[in-house]
Specification:
Layout: E1 14-22, E2 34-41, E3 44-52, E4 57-63, E5 66-75, E6 84-93, E7 98-100, E8 104-108, E9 111-115, H1 125-128, E10 132-139, E11 144-151, E12 168-169, E13 177-182, E14 187-191
Parallel strand pairs: 1-7, 1-8
Antiparallel strand pairs: 1-4, 2-3, 2-5, 5-6, 6-8, 9-13, 10-11, 10-14, 12-13
């Protein structure tokens, strides 16, 4: 028998069972309705599967043998951005077997603020004669989560290479200073 050179069929695929939990909560309690399971390895994304969160698990079929990372993202109903996520790394897939990944523990995924400013008279920095501002952000427990003196014009702020959280990072699409690593809740922002 001859085998075609460009066959997309995997000779002896494996499968992976993926289970998830939301630490200290439930899908309903966290308002997560859908999860997206992404398997990726050295060759990029291998498969993406979507499942109702309350199922607690799914099986991904037709996987070439190898090692994979498993990312599970949790989405609220009618939302396009995940609010919870978790990853397990280096899961081995053996040919012809149903392989089980360690349980993926999802945690709340932090968000960010795009902070912009103008002065009360409507002027921007250059026309107001202001060179620097100090941004300070407190959470609802009065913890200071961000504080930095920055150039008044956001385009002059240095771009941080490391994404430590919380940090200020200037993204291309941002109009101001991005303060990331923030979890849902109320914050108090002051600029001087």
């Amino acid at each position: 028998a001859l085998t075609g050179c460009n066959s997309d069929q995997i000779d002896n695929p494996g499968s992976m069972e993926v289970h998830w939990v939301i630490g200290g909560s439930t899908c309903a309690g966290s308002e997560v309705s859908t999860v997206q399971v992404t398997l990726y390895g050295d060759n990029g994304i291998q498969d993406i599967v979507t499942s109702p969160c309350q199922m607690g698990g799914t099986t991904v079929h037709q996987l070439p043998p190898g090692r994979y990372n498993v990312q599970v993202d949790g989405f609220p109903a009618q939302q396009t951005l995940p609010t919870y996520w978790g990853v397990v790394e280096d899961v081995n897939i053996r040919s012809g077997y149903v392989n089980t990944a360690p349980i993926v523990e999802m945690a709340e995924k932090p968000g960010a603020l795009d902070v912009t400013w103008r002065f009360s008279d409507g002027k921007v920095c250059a026309f107001a004669g202001v060179d620097t501002i100090e941004l300070t952000l407190w959470d609802s427990h009065s913890n200071k989560v961000y504080g930095k003196e920055l150039p008044c014009a956001p385009t002059m702020a240095p771009q941080e290479k490391e994404h430590t959280q919380p940090s200020a990072v200037l993204y291309e699409s941002a109009q101001g200073i991005i303060v990331d690593g923030l979890y849902s809740g109320d914050y108090l922002l002051k600029a001087f």
